[in-house]
Amino acid sequence: MKTAIVTDSTSYIPEELRKQLDIYMIPLSVVMGGKSYREEIDLSTAAFYEAIKHEDQLPTTTQPPIGEFVKLFETLGKKYDAIISFHLSSGISGTYQGAVSAAAMVEGVEIYPYDSETSCMAQGFFTLEAAKMAQEGKDVKEILARVRELHKHLRAYFMVDDLAHLQRGGRLTNAQAFIGSLLKVKPLLHFVDKKIVPFEKIRTNKKALKRIEDLLGEDVQKALPLQASIIHANREQEALEWKQELESKFPQVAFSISYFGPVIGTHLGEGAMGLAWTLK
């Protein structure tokens, strides 16, 4: 069985790697200055963070039209027997539901939309593993079983400099944002039941990063073979420095660096930093 692997742009897998692993990407969009830009296609992450410095209003984001899903699925159906499509959490976007609706409209190919219940490289872990297995000729059942195993061990925590972005975007309640602003805290956030919620309230960036390190350390002590990704919103130098620190503390973990691109960056704001890990 020949299986196609699809993901949306919020997994932020570099184009070279997508090509190497035959991963097909469908983009979400950012609307700025009255214009819509498909992230990773019309708008790079660097250009986005530069542009928002000059915008009076926060950008908005939109999910892919169902018609784009249908077009992609029909095209892939001509040369693949099955499609697995990985998407950001259905609790913060309608993208996954769009894939489900489109799958019901396409005949001649088995389509398996997958709700990652998270986003960014946490979602990317699933996509990359599935793509490697698809290239090895594994069938859908084997691929999804492996992804569910990774999902079971997935952890992802992130902090933001300003909760207002999440509040205005409707991804965090007003009360939660108000409490964070009032106390000047740097809350650690994570996904629970597909939604972004506070994990702990911490006073400084340094303490927040240390807490994330401690959480990773708890899993390292279980002797699990782990891979981890540092995810940043236009904080590349800080991400590189943190990676060096983590590698010295946890040499048994395979670390990489990823980023919060335009769509997720719209909701988190510049300066956000996170760490996601799962089985290697």
Automatic annotation (TrEMBL):
Gene3D superfamilies in UniProt: 3.30.1180.10, 3.40.50.10170
Keywords: Lipid-binding
Top-level taxonomic group: Bacteria
Family matches, as InterPro entries: DegV (IPR003797), DegV_C (IPR043168), DegV_domain_contain (IPR050270)
Listed name of the protein: DegV family protein with EDD domain
Native source species: Bacillus chungangensis
Upper taxonomic lineage: Bacteria, Bacillati, Bacillota, Bacilli, Bacillales
